[in-house]
Amino acid sequence: xxxxxxxxxKKMMRFMAAMFVVVCATIIFVSFWKTYYNAGIVFPFxxxxxxxxxxxxxxxxxxxxxxxxxxxxxxxxxNNIIFSQILALICANAAIYLETVLLxxxxxxxxxxxxxxxxxxxIVAVITFxxxxxxxxxxxxxxxxxLYQEYDPSDLLRKVQTRTDRYLIDKVxxxxxxxxxxLEIMDRSEAVMVYDIHSELKNKIMKYCYEKDIRLYxxxxxxxxxxxxxxxIHLFDTxxxxxxxxxxxxxxRVLKRLMDVVxxxxxxxxxxxxxxxxxxxxxxxxxxxxxxxxxRCTLDGKVFEIHxxxxxxxxxxxxxxxxxxxxxxxxxxxxxxxxxxxxxDELPQIFDILVGNMSLVGPRPERIEHVExxxxxxxxxxxxxxxxxxxTGYAQIYGKYNTTAYxxxxxxxxxxxxxxxxxxxxxxxxxxxxxxxxxxTEGFDEKQISEIQSKNE
Length: 457
Known about the structure:
Blueprint: H1 3-6, H2 10-36, H3 48-68, H4 78-104, H5 111-138, E1 142-148, H6 154-160, E2 167-174, H7 179-187, E3 191-195, H8 199-211, E4 215-218, H9 222-228, E5 231-233, E6 240-242, H10 250-286, E7 291-297, E8 303-309, H11 334-341, H12 349-354, E9 359-361, H13 368-377, E10 390-392, H14 394-398, H15 405-417, H16 421-434
Parallel strand pairs: 1-2, 1-3, 3-4, 9-10
Antiparallel strand pairs: 5-6, 7-8
Helix pairs in contact: 2-3, 2-5, 3-4, 4-5
């Protein structure tokens, strides 16, 4: 059986692999729960009761596996999958511990749940490592033919080459040739990747690849993202696509604001002691102001002052000129090194969220001068101001440190055009994972400005 035919079983095999991990983790859970916790609940479970508690555990574990991407066999790297599964285990075990406390009507010992988590982590890590090796053998990387037109594909090629476990660049071809020649190249390709080709030719390539069952990857333009999120209308026998393009609906705005208020209040209550300690440490260190304030743009271009704990020396940005921080920037104070590494410098933005200047999730609010420059180079940049700026967001989670302004714009538009309260909840949980990944980033740096280029269609 050739690789193309075998590919049809990949999703099923990915599902079976994930379910095997879930079953193994659940068996360990039931064993520990039956031994250490069952006798202590008000009405101990017997026989079918174990199936009930196991079902609750499966629900929690599968939910967090989905949120953190712990089922991405053959897609994500092994260390990413294992890390995602460990986070899912911790969250599921925390949820089931709280359920056990409710069933026991008292706080129960944490020791068994900690021991259980350690055992599960080891078993799951070993299983996932072996499963990934199996997927590597069964689904080797595809040879990719990259097609480009007027824009230099070097940036894309560099990114593709970081995932040699998934893709191998076979050819890089400029499309300035006869159509028949291009057809011959595509026919000999395992997969084709289209990089920023004009719409007319791109459409021809897409239709041909679809007709000939050639796997096709396409870097989307802004119009593609807007079209992808449109609503199907069937009023007559000609299909219509409806693009409302007015940001969030009234219901979405109400639910989003309600979640912002509830979560920000909870975070303030829980982290108040931490914020007091950080504020005192900053003040005692050099006597300067505790907070760093800066004007940023949010919904409809509204300007507000964002707040952070000050992590740099006083007057680090003289005359208001933005100077991006380097990895070992001498302007960063000893306290600043700690709070920046742990992202605790962002905590005061919870108050910005509470008063309504920001949201928990949304495009990262940028400085006024940055918005002006990016909008001058990329007119579509203003589209991201259709929603409030956020503490975390799609571009912060799925972007990297070297993601261009244009690509971050596309990520933010994917969020805006596909918004739901469930997506917000997923991104909030995903933020926990991203905190521990060095390649994540908060926003744009000045080094990228030279890379920004107009990509209007």
